[in-house]
Predict the structure of Phosphogluconate dehydratase.
Amino acid sequence: MTTMNPKITEITERIRERSRDSRQAYLEMIRSRRPKGFARQRLTESNLAHATAGCAVIEKTQLLGAGWPNIGIITAYNDMLSAHAPYEDYPRILREAAREVNAVAQVAGGVPAMCDGVTQGFTGMELSLFSRDVIAMASAIGLSHDVFDAALHLGVCDKIVPGLVIAALRFGWLPSIFVPAGPMPSGLPNPEKQKARQLFAEGKVGRDALLKAESESYHAQGTCTFYGTANSNQMLMEVMGFHLPGAAFTNPGTPLREALTRAAAQRAAKLTAQGDEYLPAGEMIDERSVVNGIVGLMATGGSTNHALHLPAMAAAAGIILTVEDFADISAVTPLLARVYPNGPADVNHFHAAGGMGFLVRELLNAGLLDGSAMGVGGPISKYCEEPFLKDGKVEWRPAPEESGNADILRHASDPFSKDGGLRMMAGPIGLGVSKVSAVQPEKRVLEAPAIVFDSQEALKEAFDAGKLNRDFVAVVRFQGPSANGMPELHSLTPPLAVLQDKGFKVALVTDGRMSGASGKVPSAIHMSPEGARGGPIAKVRDGDVIVFDAEKGVLDIKVDPEEFAARDAAEYRPNENNMGLGREMFTFFRELAGPAAAGASQFRFWDKGD
């Protein structure tokens, strides 16, 4: 048995100790809900009649007679999102598969699923982060009918999976399996797409050329193929144990994808409290699972959005994470994968090179993943296998011993870098994070005057006017959750990258977010406390010299400390009073949003311990 890395053990133990009271209260809550029989047996005859009225005769007979377990399906299907369009046929597949093993599957409810790729740089992005908590609440409504013995969660993209996880853990007495749809086939190579974006930002190509490049990149059903938040979600669900082994990156519309979908339904039927393998989600996921998730994130150069989502997800199970946990795990986790934006390859190339099975085995052998943590397919030590078809059924075999391409996926003994490339950035301006795995080492440290902006539009206007051809640190404030919902600022990457390519030293400091696909420009994001709540980022003025050192995690300002402390924070003025495009409906979300360091969540599970 591999010895665990002592630092990973130490971090896991400090999380466990920090979370002791809230975790215990959580476990008491979910254990009190464990059913003694089928969940629906608690209902009156009238209640049960309503729950079964729309079923096929065979399902209705079994539900009324209490013969088969009932599996609830929460679906994020819509046909605008390429990643979620494959889910249109999943309920039928899942019902048929469940019936084969004497179980019923019912769609319990649907949840919203918005696409950041559509709203990026526009007003709709201000609802994006909050959609995570809406999804959690919508899932809770679906499951609140309390007639289910297990749950299947259909979701892939950015906020959808974290929202579904939060709900799955708050209904943690139910076994839960996440059923992915997989990435679209590879299209235009990522470097060519990036080049088209930069040429457009410089005015060297027109919109027709840009649209052609984008359409050739995003061209079919499935997730976008770069390694942003959506595909980071899929990696997380696998290393945390919510997937069947190897389910993450099989393409939609293939026989193996359908076989994995069917297997998920049939596995869920085995995990209910009425069988011998009862595995409630809230007990399956513990401190080991959460640390495994962060290790996987660092080893693959995953999305910084999970510095927000993982604390919110963990809190739903009574587990308290800090930014320091992420930074300390990153420091001992080698980078084993280079997938765009950390390299030219996409997730299909990663999957073909050995994929999740190879990655998990390397991390297990290095003592970085805790193989004793549980997953829906067994202990995580079994997740170094990959699925294949045999006589139309899915089976598993050991993942390849060698990478198919060492430029994409490597052994832990020969990593791309010795750490995962995430830094905690701290100093007088606040606390944030920086992802440096895609930033060239010589670009990670700079000292330059600040140029302060109150919106991303203001920065883009200054760029278009030719006012930014110099060394500077862009300070984009009033982008936090209580200001405007903490939108991603990915549309700032092309102009800043253009300036960087011209030889200027540039960096971004913001209390907003960056896309999971942002990379080459150094940035300190999620700055907390945020500017709209009087955080020190609102005290920075044009010309203040910023020391940005992403190697040491230092974010300093060359202003006398007493003078800086005495400054008044700039006043936040809500943009159009946050009216229009539904933003006025999220007033209470902005008012109640927690700090970025705690996940920017509406929920305060740890306050009451329930």
Summary: Residues 128-143 form the longest helix (16 residues).
